[in-house]
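Quick illustration, no need to memorize.
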Amino acid sequence: MSVAATPGILSFPRRHARLYGILSTYPPTQCGLATFSAALSRGLEMNGAAVGIVRVADGTASPDPRILAELDNGSPSSVAEATAELSNCDVAMVQHDYGLYGGRDGDEVLEIVRGLTVPSIVVAHTVLVEPTVHQRQVLEQVVDAAGAVVVMAQTAARRLCSSFDVDPSKVTVINHGAASPDPGYRPSRAGRPILLSWGLFGPGKGIEWAIDAMAGLKDLSPRPRYVVAGRTHPKVVSSQGEAYRDMLVARTWAQGVAGSVTFDSAYRDVRSLTHLIQDATVVVLPYDSRDQVTSGVLVDAIAAGRPVVATAFPHAVELLAGGAGLVVPHGDAAALSSALRRVLTEPGLAESMEREAARLGPAFSWSSVAAQYARLADRILDDQVIDDRDLGDRDLTDRRLTSAQALPV
């Protein structure tokens, strides 16, 4: 699929708004990066900027007027045109994750970042503990080519600066954004307590551990209900079908909790999803990953003021350290069940978690997060002006020296 510019996006008076070009997957693509980029775009626009998207193609079409171009992975002409479209913006924001772009470990993105003629901000969504040699090289070269690099947790910043050969001065921590809770919505929690997990599911999400944990809560009255909201990740469906979901359903019957577990695959827009989160008694994140330094589900839960029980992945350990949730070992259904029991039965515990989440929540609003990206863009643009001025001074000095050497003596 070729890249096609969208009329109108670049036609506004440029002095009135800064134009950010974002390279990423984008709706209707179903993945966390697409959701992130759409929300960041809206946050930047709320702060007075304009946004154009270079969308990583996935075979679906997007009618969004922000779309400047589509990147066809593996196509040199598409890579070149995507680079040119991003270079027509004031600042390019490149979302980075392994497997997002063409080439080995997504190394095709290097050609784009190196070819940009405007300052760039790379958002590193994954910083591996044990990368392969090539994965390490790709991320180090991406950082080297970028004007600035954003990670979303202090853990990720420490890992990137200590384990990779990068310039630490380029690395900035900006929180993952979250949808703000609806202040006019009044959730009803009078019935059975609701335990909630949501997102795009597949192996590694650990939902089976939460189902096993439910078996240890059968004695509670009223018995809690576990809602698993979301569909199987499209990439998982394409390779494995619904085997993971089928396994989960079978597990509910084997554990005797089928009547207390609901699989809800209905599509929800941001507003209805926010209401679902606000309805939850506890949010459960039983992920298997020990590497995960970014979780949009986690920040959405905290922004909504809900208590969290999560496995000890890095982002959860960092954000829940102040008391907004409990952290349990990976793959330990008994520990997960015990933590859930505490939140549901221990006097005052859920309320203290809610207060800590309410304290943290405002920092995750997309408007606040987008403002931090804008300030970072200001900084790298200012740095470019200084660099250009220094380069101009050096060129002038060189010309004067050349002229002086050419004078007769």
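Confidence is low (pLDDT under 50) at residues 1-16.
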